[in-house]
Amino acid sequence: MTTTLHTTPVAVDDKGDASDKRVVRRRLGPGRRIRFAFWIGPVLALTVWSIGSATGVIKPAILSAPWDVVVAFEDQWVNHDLLGNILSSLQRSAIGLFLGVTTGAVLAVISGLSRIGESLIDGPIQIKRSVPTLAIIPLFIAWFGIGQEMKIITIALISLVPIYIHTHNGLRSIDGKYAELAETIGISHGEFIRHIVLPGALPGFLLGMRFAVTSSLLGLVVVEQYNAVAGIGHMITLAEQYGQTDVIVVGLVIYGIFGYCADSAVRLTARRVLAWRKTLEG
């Protein structure tokens, strides 16, 4: 009889706790996810742009109307090598981003898992963090010339820093209780890294990826101004010389689409890969 009276309230409390957690999450969270929510902001911005251009609030000399940009896009696609420029820019950005992400992640793991590695790596990275990469471009030009190599290295170095910072922070933020638990149950060092450390650092890595993607496009915009014979930046530079505002906007829109789609892909990947985490996002 005593046992029954003791277990019944415990079961009720467990259910109550679970119910309370769900209620708290509903109250604190952003609510039910909206389909195609990523595109609401851009569509709203396009609507405001169109209305402003149609009513004359936005002058063509300041910003070309959306329909003029569409005409310019068609002209660049048909009469100029817009596709080739897009592919050239994507190639530079992808190679530089890959090199930066790979190097940054490796350095973060070495620094995050080793005191010696941290003493050798973290200091130089923090110094580099305080020095804008774009300010080092003149040195890169002197070292590597103004060809493709300089452009890719610049993009890689810009992408490296956010990957390193956030991955390293993710590694250092792992609760020490997991290490104690791993030691208690006797799992090997390799298993501990594979099953505890790397999954624990994954949220930081994916957050760094979002910053790295944006940073790589920032670097791409700048380096393509230097002696590029192809690419969106090259197209924008020529349009600036001839005063073609609509073509400049075409290039800016393409850059924006690159960044938005890449960021959306990283966010979608994070949502699927980190489905085991219970956050306010759901």
From TrEMBL:
<keyword id="KW-0812">Transmembrane</keyword>
<keyword id="KW-1133">Transmembrane helix</keyword>
<dbReference type="GO" id="GO:0055085">
    <property type="term" value="P:transmembrane transport"/>
</dbReference>
<keyword id="KW-0472">Membrane</keyword>
<dbReference type="InterPro" id="IPR000515">
    <property type="entry name" value="MetI-like"/>
</dbReference>
<feature type="transmembrane region" description="Helical">
    <location>
        <begin position="152"/>
        <end position="171"/>
    </location>
</feature>
<feature type="transmembrane region" description="Helical">
    <location>
        <begin position="247"/>
        <end position="268"/>
    </location>
</feature>
<feature type="transmembrane region" description="Helical">
    <location>
        <begin position="192"/>
        <end position="213"/>
    </location>
</feature>
<dbReference type="GO" id="GO:0005886">
    <property type="term" value="C:plasma membrane"/>
</dbReference>
<keyword id="KW-1003">Cell membrane</keyword>
<feature type="transmembrane region" description="Helical">
    <location>
        <begin position="36"/>
        <end position="58"/>
    </location>
</feature>
<feature type="transmembrane region" description="Helical">
    <location>
        <begin position="129"/>
        <end position="146"/>
    </location>
</feature>
<keyword id="KW-0813">Transport</keyword>
<feature type="transmembrane region" description="Helical">
    <location>
        <begin position="94"/>
        <end position="117"/>
    </location>
</feature>
<dbReference type="Pfam" id="PF00528">
    <property type="entry name" value="BPD_transp_1"/>
</dbReference>
<feature type="domain" description="ABC transmembrane type-1">
    <location>
        <begin position="86"/>
        <end position="266"/>
    </location>
</feature>
<comment type="similarity">
    <text>Belongs to the binding-protein-dependent transport system permease family.</text>
</comment>
<protein>
    <submittedName>
        <fullName>Sulfonate transport system permease protein</fullName>
    </submittedName>
</protein>
<dbReference type="InterPro" id="IPR035906">
    <property type="entry name" value="MetI-like_sf"/>
</dbReference>
